[in-house]
Amino acid sequence: MASEYVLGIDLGTTYSCVAVVEAGNARVLEQKGGYRTLPSVVAFNPDGSSMIGHIAKRQAVTNAENTIYAAKRLIGRVFEAPEVARASQLVPYKIVQGPNRDPRVRVFGKNHPIQEISALILRQIKAIAEEALHCRLDKAVITVPAYFSDGQRQATRDAGEIAGLDVLRIINEPTAASLAFGYNKRLNKKIAVYDLGGGTFDISVLDISTDTFEVLSTAGNTFLGGEDFDIRILEFIIKSFQTEHGFDLKEDKMALQRLKDASEAAKCQLSGSLETEINLPFITTIAGESKHLKYSLHRAELEKLTEDLVDQSIKICQSALDMAALKISDIDDVLLVGGMTRMPLVQQRVQEFFGRIPAKNVHPDEAVAVGAALMGASLVEEEAAILLLDVTPLSLGVRTAGGYTSIIVPKNSTIPTSANHVFTTVTDNQQSVKIQVVQGEAKLASENQPLGEFTLTDIPEAAAGVPQIEVTFSIDSNGILEVSAKDLHSQREQSIVVSAASYLSDEEMHSLSSQNESQALQDDLLTGLKPVK
Amino acid sequence: MGIKFKPDSVLRASVQIPAALNQEEAYLWSRLGSPIQFKDLQSLCPWPEEKFLEILKSLHNKSGLGQLEKPTATAPSKSISVSAEVRELLQGDKFDPVAKEIDEKFRRECLIRLEKSGNDNPFENLDLSVSASDEAVRRSYLELSKRFHPDRFFRKNLGPYRKRVNQLFTIVQKSYERIKNPHDREAEARKLRLKDRVEATTPKAAKSKPRRMDPEIERIGKAEMIYKQGLEAEAQSRFVEAANHFQMASQLNPEKNLYEKALQKIRPELERYKASEFIKSAKKALELGLADDALLASEQAMKMDPQNFEAAVLAAKSILKCGMKERIQDAFEMLRRAKVNLPKNAEACFLLGQVYQVKREEDKAILEYEEALRRDPQMSLAKNYLIKLRGE
Ligand SMILES: Nc1ncnc2c1ncn2[C@@H]1O[C@H](COP(=O)(O)OP(=O)(O)OP(=O)(O)O)[C@@H](O)[C@H]1O
Ligand SMILES: [Mg+2]
Known about the structure:
The complex is a heterodimer.
Chain A: E1 6-10, E2 15-22, E3 25-28, E4 38-39, E5 41-44, E6 50-52, H1 54-58, E7 67-69, H2 82-90, E8 94-97, E9 103-107, E10 110-113, H3 114-133, E11 139-144, H4 150-162, E12 166-172, H5 173-182, E13 188-196, E14 201-209, E15 212-221, H6 226-245, H7 253-272, E16 275-286, E17 289-298, H8 299-323, E18 333-337, H9 344-354, H10 367-380, E19 387-389, E20 396-400, E21 404-409, E22 417-423, E23 433-439, E24 449-456, E25 469-475, E26 481-487, E27 492-494, E28 496-500, H11 506-527
Parallel strand pairs in A: 1-11, 11-12, 13-18, 15-19
Antiparallel strand pairs in A: 1-2, 2-3, 2-4, 5-6, 5-7, 8-9, 9-10, 13-14, 14-15, 16-17, 20-21, 20-23, 22-25, 23-24, 24-28, 25-26, 26-27
Helix pairs in contact in A: 3-4, 3-11, 5-10, 6-7, 6-8, 8-9
Chain B: E1 10-12, H1 23-30, E2 36-37, H2 38-44, H3 49-63, E3 66-68, H4 84-93, H5 104-117, H6 122-125, H7 134-148, H8 161-179, H9 182-201, H10 204-207, H11 219-235, H12 239-252, H13 257-287, H14 291-304, H15 309-322, H16 328-341, H17 346-358, H18 362-375, H19 380-391
Antiparallel strand pairs in B: 1-2, 1-3
């Protein structure tokens, strides 16, 4: 039997972190070598085995095409999404279309679902925690960006399941950070959580009254983060190199990977100093001649290159305040979460916008995992210590005649929640009705994210328009949609067939999980885990 | 006589309908259906202060006004008798081992609250009076959210109460949404007073209607929701769907004749739509050679929409196909009207030609075939008959 510990896992785009509550205190679990975060990187060997975390990141330069990073930017999206196309252009690994309209990464001739990549990271995290606590663990609360859609949440939960975790709850990253900030402090204030990580940006406005954490509004962009800052530097240097040497570094995969790492390093450097040097000897060979790359970059240059990204995030802050119907002066505290908030320009702009110095007592890399652990502990306790009133970030609707979206659950509704909608048939003796569910704010259904299609079947034969089938859309505490239907005349439950966009089929989930189990057994033998108490 | 009112005292009318009230007293009484602050009441009435006080006092003498010093928090667990439905459900729980794991007081509270939620009164759902302050609204909201948040029962097996608890949580959230800001709260309060007044003036007998067994069905709210969906469907010209929604709404809540009216309003659209559907099936039937069925369908279409001359053409064609001599005159009339009203329709003329041939009026038949060809020069059938008739 596994222990009662619940892991709080921050599954980040670039770094992941795990924490647990022990004797009432939350603490981050360290890896061998004292690392407190794990790079969210998975690399494959030709024999199909994998490396995860630091080792994977270290060998990325020499093995770029088989090293998967930033998988979180792809998870739960459909292949045709513009974000997937953008990611495809930026990463050295290959992204192909899977059987359920989902993107997959192609490595050594095998297509891996994104859920599998995330599961590999989660499994590593589980192993780290088991080693640190010397016992078997299987319960977890996993965090996702607040602005994640239903599909992205579902895929994350599936990844947890594949990794052999019992995912008690999916919670939002900024909300988790607010728990770390306000837990057990008997606060009574309104706060804004600004979370700029490696891949995503979230802003949430909360009202904390002692043990109740009520999210008033949330907004964000799931494709705005540190990676985008790195890319700006990268592109700047590629351009300079091209004018100097007439050679496009994008053609050299290894050079590109080195440059990407160097860009990130330079960005981080510039948070602490005003100038840095990007020095990459033997970056490439042009006509048999080795070329070296050497540029110096000033903080002011970086700021000029990336200012618009920061401004984008500030605009989103304003809309979150508007949705919460609050003025800037109503906010008592601002929290900065995510590694990118170490950038001085970010701090400066946030401070200017909110007119106050951000709170200093949250750890930008660890607060999210700590909050998740607190939530997990509260859930399994006899008397819950925390009441979390979170919201759904995006409106949920169905496609109606003419291709329009008819909203059923508006964004920023407190979850769990449910709403009913009555559907009927359009032709005589019609036996099934197909309903397309979408998420997003666009008027046209096709411009929103498809969540899936539901087919109501076995409708009793009747003239057109006579059957009245009431469909209940429930969004659970994880922000994940469930659908049920009832025939209003007979009061009988109506059967529903769900075919969701971009999810894994049951068989595939099963085969991935068992594959994962056999690997886990091997690992057990290797690390020689102690049996549970 | 000695009753005194402070601006913030909360008043409420006695439950009994008082006997002889004059018009002014009745007006005031109707505004006292739910608890209201003295000053709010005064602002709602058209009279000067002195007159207002006078009417209030005389009303008090006749019916006895309840005066409460503080805004009421009517906790339903303490309050009033339990309805038969709730009692029955609680009885049933005795045989459900799962339900027995949650304490009875809580179960009872869930059932009573669910039943009350059918009144669609956000104040009542949050244990508040209509004049509750911002602070009271928020306090009550947080308290009730905590009481019914599913996380509180994360590891518990609630059996049938799982769904009820979730439902109650949603009710608390939605009620709070409706009254959390003072402006909306005022509007909701006004709506309630109006509703109370209407109910006060409706005779008791009419009000008591058979209640649904299932306390989970929020009849009135559901009717309204279905009605709204109907409006949406109507806006997008999905008339059948709209009509069905309106009908459903008015079945659920017959007191609200708005639903019935909406249904009446779109009836012509609906009939027209249904007619077009019947025409489709008539055409199909003719294709399949089922002239009897086609006749039935096209006559239905004509009944729905007498202005639909396409239906008339189809009906006449079916009559001819069936060879129903006794109805040839009907067909003739229908076609004549169709020919005039559908100036481009060649088939009407052709069929008219056929009718004339049946009636052995070949000259007129020729004229009709010619007209058919003028309308549609490609119509080979008309051509053939014309050749045959002229050849003779
Ligand atoms: N000192 C620093 N200055 C600037 N940026 C930094 C610094 N340290 C880390 N970063 C950036 O922060 C980002 C990582 O932040 P974090 O670990 O919070 O993100 P994540 O959790 O992986 O991503 P997400 O939350 O978006 O899924 C990276 O882009 C990294 O380059
Ligand atoms: Mg993060």
